[in-house]
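PROTEIN DESIGN WORKSHEET
SECTION A - STRUCTURE
LENGTH: 169
TOKENS:
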């Protein structure tokens, strides 16, 4: 506990107050499933778009598990989304969304080696600005033009009962 508190204090001090901003990314789960997410931001993940293959191991500190309603995907002392994405190869943040039940049953090693994710969002600073840092699973209508794999229509088709639970935004 003391180490966690010390880490948090150091992290907060590392942020230059003039660089601090509101460029956070939140994932809102409207699926009824427990999900997990992993951002490929280049800096902490070790890879970023256009490299979209999950590595054999991931930075466990960056994984968000058991997301029932919402959670941060990425939050760093960034004054803008462009600054937030400066550690990526192409200015794109990839966010992988996993079914938590599959992660629990098969384990991360299997999920990673089989690239077993439900969707991968490839978000530019412009996407994040227009979405105000809010991304959804399943994707909302506002995310229709965001680059994702599988494509928007396939995700909605694959989760038809789930997709209907997304409120109109």
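SECTION B - SEQUENCE
RESIDUE ASSIGNMENT:
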């Amino acid at each position: 506990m003391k180490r966690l508190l010390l880490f948090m204090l150091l992290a907060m001090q590392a942020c230059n107050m003039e660089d601090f901003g509101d460029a956070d990314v939140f994932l809102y789960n409207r699926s009824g499933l427990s999900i997990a997410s992993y951002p490929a931001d280049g800096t902490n993940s070790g890879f970023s778009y256009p490299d979209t293959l999950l590595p054999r191991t991931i930075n466990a500190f960056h994984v968000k598990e058991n997301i029932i309603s919402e959670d941060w995907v990425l939050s760093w002392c960034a004054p803008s989304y462009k600054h937030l994405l400066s550690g990526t190869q192409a200015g794109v943040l990839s966010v992988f969304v996993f079914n938590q039940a599959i992660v629990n049953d098969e384990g991360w090693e299997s999920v990673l080696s089989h690239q077993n994710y439900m969707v991968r969002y490839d978000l530019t600073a412009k996407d994040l600005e227009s979405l105000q840092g809010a991304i959804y699973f399943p994707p909302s209508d506002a995310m229709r033009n965001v680059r994702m794999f599988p494509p928007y229509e396939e995700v909605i088709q694959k989760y038809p009962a789930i997709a209907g639970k997304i409120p109109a935004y």
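SECTION C - NOTES
DSSP finds seven helices and eight strands in the chain.
The beta strands are 25-29, 35-40, 64-67, 70-74, 92-99, 119-124, 134-137, 147-149.
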